[in-house]
Amino acid sequence: MALRDRPSPNHGPRPEGTSVDILVLHYTGMLSAEAALDRLCDPAAEVSAHYVVEEDGTVWRLVGEGRRAWHAGRGAWGGAQDVNNRSIGVEIVNPGHEYGYRPFPQAQMQAVIELCRGILARQPIPAGNVIAHSDMAPARKQDPGELFDWPGLARAGIGLWPATDARGTAWDGGEAQVAALLARLGYDPAIASFTETLIAFQRHWHPEALGQPADAETVRRLHSLLAQSGR
């Protein structure tokens, strides 16, 4: 992993006594890596991330992990209402859904794996708190999206993926059961509709069902993830 420094001025102190326990993965959603880096280092933009991973695997360190980067924005996960306070943010170069969303190259994914392994070795982040930007902000974010290799990360020991042989409880056919399971996993029902939250879940953990109604497989996958995370 090629690590380079490009300091961003856009950061601040973490609240005293706050532990880092969330890792948020984003895509840049811009036309080029350079445009993304320029924006994340522009004081007027007031946004940043701790790291940026280019498509060729180059990793840029913008903000030290001990500082509060400005990457997450409005949202919540697992009861945390200010995710920036307690998270590390990694921006992964990809034009995103607006500019020609495409698969993430292998060199880039390998760099993400190596970077995340290092972060998890330094920070007490549970597997259930390795999330997508869209998980904490389902109503306004789609990244890093359904083409991101979440199963590959889980195989590398980063985050969670539903077990193929896991069994869930019977699905009663209603939204309430699914909504309750989504909330247990970490989604905040107060910040997005059920449909928006379900789509965020699908982008991360059930991409082949993206945009489809909840079903028994949704419930099975949720139970598998909850069992793995101990929630």
UniProtKB/TrEMBL annotation:
It catalyses: Hydrolyzes the link between N-acetylmuramoyl residues and L-amino acid residues in certain cell-wall glycopeptides. Keywords: Cell wall biogenesis/degradation, Hydrolase. It is an enzyme of class 3 (hydrolase). Residues 8-145 form the N-acetylmuramoyl-L-alanine amidase domain. It holds the Pfam family Amidase_2. The keyword Cell wall biogenesis/degradation applies. Its EC number is 3.5.1.28. One of its GO terms (cellular component) is outer membrane. The keyword Hydrolase applies. One of its GO terms (molecular function) is N-acetylmuramoyl-L-alanine amidase activity. GO terms for biological process: cell wall organization; peptidoglycan catabolic process; peptidoglycan turnover. Belongs to the N-acetylmuramoyl-L-alanine amidase 2 family. This is N-acetylmuramoyl-L-alanine amidase. It comes from Nitrospirillum amazonense. The lineage of its organism: Bacteria, Pseudomonadati, Pseudomonadota, Alphaproteobacteria, Rhodospirillales.
